[in-house]
Amino acid sequence: MNHDELAHWSKIAADWARDYHANLRDAPVRPNITPGEIKAQLPKTAPDTPEEIRRIFADFERLVPGATTHWQHPRFFAYFPANASPASMLAEQLANAIAGQAMLWQTAPAANEIEAVMIDWLLDALGLPETFTGTIHDSATTATLSAILTMRERALDWAGNSQGLTNQPRLRIYASAETHSSVDKGIRIAGIGQQNLVKIPTTADHGMDPVALDAAIKADIAAGFLPAGVVLCTGGTSIGACDPIADCVRVAKSHNLFTHVDAAWAGSAMICPEFRTLWDGVEGADSVVFNPHKWLGVQFDCAVQFMPDPTAQIQTLGLRPEYLKTQNQDDIVNYNEWTVPLGRRFRALKIWFTLRAYGLEGLRERIRNHVRWALEAREAIAEIDGCILTTEPRLSLFTFAYRDDVETAALLERINNDGRIYLTQTTHHGKFVIRVQVGQFDCTRDDVMMIPQVIRELTG
Ligand SMILES: *Cc1c(COP(=O)(O)O)cnc(C)c1O
Which CATH architecture has domain 1-30+69-82+360-460? Predict the structure, then answer.
């Protein structure tokens, strides 16, 4: 395949993409397929000789769409959204065409400088201090890992990087039980050890109890541990829990601990000023992550980390061997020194296209609609015989149960086999509950009201 053929097939692919999206409502959100079905239809080894693109494309159409969970389906209400606005898809195609590598300013000047400006645009859009700076990662998991590594090295005065952890004091990191498993993963990768992630109790509204945080830190210091940092959440994945950021940051700072706020999902909603009370005090944090690839419309992958001062993170992650040096330029930013991988995709382009193509008002209107429609769906579910609302809505996320655990699980299975909508589960206070989140970029009120309709039909 050469570039002329690429141009030819790209046009076919673009038309295919338009039709795919136009017809999604008619497809089940989750495919009806058993594990191994696709594997069984693929050859065991790669071909020795070239195959025609026509045949490869035909196999794609035959095998892939029917075995795909459609994240861009307007009735995808599972997990959290992974929105891909058409403008962001276009930007991604252009980034793919350039196929550059944005590790250093000089390896990708435009990518680098657009990234810096997008960080500023997003700080302003989310109401964060303009004195903050930041960078783009692939995922919130990596951003959180970067923050945890920074907590570790800051607490050890960078002795972990140089000497390893063997003879260092036992580090402690604090988070509530509502924080995402990416925090546990970061703790493991950072060599801190799962046992040293202290889960702080929550209060009745599911946020971290700052008094319990203070007590845990003091008890650890008395026991000879070395507290290093606190990971807080705004919009936890399970039920949307929000820690009281201002109070917890105050406690953390009184012990000189580094704080990181995980707002992977809920961060996008902060473009609407009325939701910012959920992370009151966030300007006091040392690091904040949110995923434009969830609710904002910037297609996967794109996670943004903001920091008032990146120095500690650069000191933790930045290396500058001779082959990565830029001659005669000291005043440039090389974002690889802020992140775990060296190589970096040109992710800023899709932020740029998305923010311009819809405008902040267009994006705000979507999020506000999602929140409003989620409340309407919840009211309708409350009236269905046997349905019990189990958590209050946080933005556009709420949970419910149907009679008992067994009946709830059975209902979820019936809902997802039906295919018109897609929901997933969590456990809350030991009970199996069904999560509903509204946030797909193209969903309408009718799509959302299909949730109570399907539940009514399947429980009637
Ligand atoms: C989705 C999510 C994550 C993980 O995001 P990735 O970008 O997939 O790593 C972390 N924290 C919260 C609260 C999330 O909702």
Answer: Alpha-Beta Complex (3.90)
